[in-house]
Amino acid sequence: SSKNQGGNQVSFFTSQLTQHIHERLMLETALSRSIDLGAFELFLQPKMHAQSLEVTGCEALIRWFKDDGTMISPAVFIPIAESTRLIIGLGKWVIEEACRILQGWVAQGRVVPMAINVSVVQLLEEDFVEFVLACLRKHQVPADMLELEITESTLIDNFDKVVAVLTEVRQNGLRIAMDDFGTGYSSLSNLNRLPIDVIKADKSFVQGVPNEAAITQLIGSIGEVLGVELVAEGVETREQLEWLRQNGFDTLQGFYFSKPIPAHRFEKLFLFKDE
Ligand code: C2E
Ligand code: MG
Ligand code: MG
Ligand code: MG
């Protein structure tokens, strides 16, 4: 009967929910143990100058490897880390590890800036700025070699506080990028108040180029008005590359050039390839 079906449906959803909560709990427990176990690694993806196609920077993207060697995507565990505040410790590990890698490059006279992704949860911590600056000092890395990427859509709730923190970070010489730009519906007046050096057009728009290029073009215009560096993420084809470099984009990033790869491979392929 329909009543029975309804009942089955409820228990179906209940068991799905239970499983979801169970998986989340397992993930949370594993996550909190994994920092100490060295189960995280920063992969690096190059950013290319749109005209010369030389490597002018890179982005660090975290990878989590389980005991059996399988990888869990940051798209899965970063949101959980954010909602459980585990992102605070994990984020500190990312900052420290980025500085450690950069220290090696500086020592070898290779100046390629690195961008790291930072969650708003981290930014709102009392000691955030002090921690970043202490890390840079400890590893003797110039502040302008580190760029912080903040996802546009996460800013809105704590806008004034975030602006204050980013302003302080920027006064200390670090660069600030708005990530996934175009997905956050920042009002134009807010945009004007953001202390930023870079906007990164979200890959969902970039991948529409050249056939559906209206939003990417609009983002290009906004970047031009704001006078910031324009980056396109998610560049996968030669056609996208051509369109983007003809439409004011300064910097390109995407699988067309390279996937995110382990740091030692990045160094070999892009930094010290002549050595
Ligand atoms: P994101 O910062 O916007 O990074 C871009 C994502 O697009 C990365 O996914 C990257 O691997 C992927 N990507 C790059 N080029 C292409 C392309 O040509 N085509 C396609 N389809 N994808 C491309 P990933 O590594 O899975 O990271 C997902 C998100 O997780 C990141 O998005 C970022 O928001 C977050 N994340 C990654 N690492 C960290 C971290 O250390 N801390 C924090 N707080 N978040 C992180
Ligand atoms: Mg990013
Ligand atoms: Mg992005
Ligand atoms: Mg993204």
Automatic annotation (TrEMBL):
Coiled coil: none annotated. This is Diguanylate cyclase. Residues 24-274 form the EAL domain. The chain holds residues 393 to 667 of 667 of the full protein.
